[in-house]
Amino acid sequence: MKILTTILMSAAVAAFASGGFAAEEKETKDQAKTVTLEGTATCAKCDLGTADTCTTVLQVKEGDKTVDYYITGEPDKEFHKKICKKSKEAKATGTVSEKDGKKTLEVTSIEEKAKK
To answer: What range does the record give for the signal peptide (predicted)?
Structure first.
């Protein structure tokens, strides 16, 4: 019985330790993907005509071309009201991914850029 308890405790410690390392590695990967982008925030439906519903798009100049990032995330819900009918310069921080051939930015923060 003592041996069985020792084996089970060792297995539990090993599982806990490896789970901790996996979580730490995942956090590091996620943190590496967090970016801050600046560009023109506009509405995909009302301004660009590329969506059926109002969606914030951040248009970012990358070299010679403009890349559209479709914004998702809780902070955008209030922000979209500011740009739906009139685009504004904005700064957004979040995680970039690609879905259905479109770049998306899951924002943790988005705000109107201060005018110079």
So the answer is: 1-22
Give how many domains the chain has, as a whole number. Answer: 1
In a domain, 104, yes or no: yes
In a domain, 76, yes or no: yes
Contact 81, 111 (CB under 8 A): no
Token pair, residue 101, equals 């051939």
In a domain, 66, yes or no: yes
**Token pair in block for residue 80:** 């979209």
- Return the residue matching tokens 């009139």: 86
How many whole angstroms separate alpha carbon 20 and alpha carbon 40? Answer: 40
How many CB atoms are located within 10 Å of the residue 50 CB? 13
Question: Which band of pLDDT confidence, cut at 50, 70 and 90, is reported for residue 116?
Answer: low
Q: Which residue has the tokens 């690609």?
A: 98
- Chain centroid to Cα 47, Å, comes to 23
Among the ranges given (22-26, 32-36, 61-65), the one the predictor scored with the smallest mean pLDDT: 22-26
**Domain hosting residue 44, numbered range:** 35-112
Model confidence at 32: pLDDT above 50: no
